[in-house]
Amino acid sequence: MSNQYVIEPNLTFIDEVIGLGGDTLKKCFQCATCSVACPIAPENSPFPRKEMIAASWGLKDKLVGSADIWLCHECGDCTALCPRGAKPGATLSAIRSYAISEYSGSVPVLGKLSKMVTDPKKLALLTAVPAVWFALMAFITVFMGGTMEKIFHAIGLHWAHVTDAPIAQARFVSTWLVDFTFVPVFNISILIFVYTLYKMLTDMHTNAVLEGKTDKEKLDYKEYFKTIPTVLKKVLAHTQFNECGENKSRGTAHMMVLFGFIGCLIVTTIGFFFLYILGKPGPYSQLWPFKWLGNIAGISIVMGSALMIKERLSKTDLSAYKDWYLLGLVLTLGATGLMTQMARLAGMEYVTYAIYYVHLIAIFHLFAYLPFSKLAHIVYRLAAMTYAEYANRK
User: Fold this and answer.
1) Spacing of C-alpha 305 from chain mean position
2) pLDDT digits (tens, 9 = 90+) for 368-387
């Protein structure tokens, strides 16, 4: 007696993938050109053909819990050679967005944000929350500075983290209030990633075992974490992007943004150390080396995101909202950071504070909505690439 397999398609999943940018999914007729064309697909069970089949059949669990959807870098080689214009890369990108929404949506209390961040109609609300919050922080700083100074003095701290400079962002929104906002928000985002990545890795390993992609019966987290440095080298060198042919230039823009954010992280860490450990408040001189690094990092983010936007605009088909949200956020972060500094150096006080206000709202978007937006793919892809390396996925 032969084995029988029952497939129960999830029609809602198919509709959502199509809505997230996989609108050409049904054009695929399984010729396998995409899997042959992909320069980075593993030799055993390559992608994206099998993912296109699973998506067409609505096999949500098979796709959402698969590491392979994250190995794709959407370089465009498969899309360029597809005889039907099915755009497999765009479909996998849509599936990744669905996976982010699925895992982040399982987070207690905050899970509702997973749908809001991908809904353009909710952008105004998501922006209004930090806008109102930082307006309140500005009111406290400007109009209640004397009261706050007495409170902080009573506990042995200084309220005003500024030098004698005539213009300083801390005079508009106190550094204390900024850090009291972003430190907890950032840590909550980290906890969300820990929660969702555990579920994701569990699903990945379960699927890999069932599909015979690994001979490791149990996921060894100690060995898994040992693999991270090897994968980080590939990510920093953009090895996969360099193997792509159709859109190889995207690698340059991605590297500019990636290293720009790394530079900003280093500068922020140094600034935090100077302020709270050494007790040296800003604004800091432009002659300081870490200011050079910050300026270079900001310029790199702006130029990299601008190149990505230019590349998107050159396409005949429109990108999904999730893509524009991410690109717009990255460009806004870099541009407002640089413009705040330029306005301050030019002596334009109110312009400085207005731009800084927008910059704070953008940072809130970055930290608070990171686990729910497309930007989360940086974390998920690193986790999936590490799992593939750990499981000897070739």
Assistant:
1) 13
2) 999 999 889 999 999 999 99
